[in-house]
Target: Sodium-dependent transporter
Amino acid sequence: MTRESWQTRIGFILAAVGSAVGLGNLWRFPWMTSDNGGAAFLLVYLGVVLLVGVPGLLAEFVIGRRSRRNPVGALSDLSESSAWSAFGHVFVVTAVILLSFYSVVGGWILRYFAGSFTGAYFAAPGAYFESINYGVEAVGFHLLFLGVTALIVLRGVRRGIERATKLMMPAIVVLLLALAAWGVTLDGASEGVAFYLAPDIAFLQANFLNILPAAAGQALFTLSLGAGTMLTYASYLGEDRSLAADGTAIAVLNTFVGVLAGVVVFPILFALGVGAGGGGPGALFVSLASAFAALPYGQVVGVVFFGVVVLAALSSSISMLEIPVSFLVDEYGLSRRAAVGGLTGVFAVTGAVCALDQGVFGFVAGTLVDLLLTGGLVGFMLFAGWVLGADAVTELQGGSGPLARSLATPWLYAVGVFIPVFLIFTFVSGLADAAGVAVGPLSLLGVTLGPTRILLVVTAVVAVVSFLGLRRSRSVL
Ligand code: PFF
Model:
């Protein structure tokens, strides 16, 4: 049987953008931005998307198209090593964990969408969120969201995903633009615009090490990196496509939607005196619900906004389900129907656990996801750099224009050495911060180094050593 492939280039781009654009942009990004100083966070986040996100996306694309397999098959086929094959199974677990909590948030969104018609959350937005977030009803809405996701995936790559995202993406952009254009004209909106777009450099300098891990985690999550989603999507891609051009287009579109979501959220929040709001998974819901409740035609605005979020969440959740489905179809010869059915049963249970317990939800949606995505992307990058080596360069160059061809070798050093080292650095400093462990200051040869400098020096040393290693390795000549 020949493997299905994308009917059109735009079909692939729309589906990949559909995976990237989701609750990460609309729910998690405004929450992270408000918790981490607004524009300062935006600046660091944009830097990470450009310097880590785009090269990382290309690493997943290269492995996916080279192997034409799911993540497990890809790593074991291309390396012929049982260790890499075992590592590949981590991505199936990651997908299961991602969809478990994502489907719960998808359920909340469905609930708010339905509630917007009647204005159910208008009277007491805070109490409303508390009453629906965890519990038996949350399980019900999670199952509804999961059911819709499963139905779309059941219809197959071409007919299901491609057709669904072709409709969703333009609708999302148009609706967000309309909401943004309306939001910035509100009285007091300019304060929100300033919070979001005018960076406070002193704040940035003082908090850089705290902002960095949050920005990096957010960049991976929003671009669907580190879970094998992008690898799986690229495995359906023809040889003649330019991975670099497609990857850049996807990152730009995704970033555009995220930044646009901020332009929708912050002016509205400030115009209503809600401000940047407190943290926690309910931040967006509580603050926007308060906003809609106070607005003229708030029900209409609510229906439109949550309608957009439902569409965006679905085009991401289908990409999460596609990973374990393609794994079972490719590796175990299961029919698509059996794979989707069986997995939906598993997610129904794992998602229900998240929907019932706030503590489990918080751990899974936060720390566990950051850990798995960062570890996963580091694995993909090292695989591209050290296992594929020169083959990765060839794969990236295939179908590409002159600029991408000349950047392919520097890209390999970036994904083989510098970015993994940076991600590990970021992750360790994030963990140290979360655990309340202070790094440094340290006195070395009479020079006193603060935490940032210590970490930078360690990073530079490891990067140079690995760089020399990669140059000597026979895989890259
Ligand atoms: N990028 C998606 C979002 O922003 O909502 C979330 C996501 C989808 C993460 C698929 C990881 C993934 F594999």
Observations:
- The two ends are 37 Å apart (CA to CA).
- The first helix runs from residue 9 to 20.
- The chain has a mean pLDDT of 86.
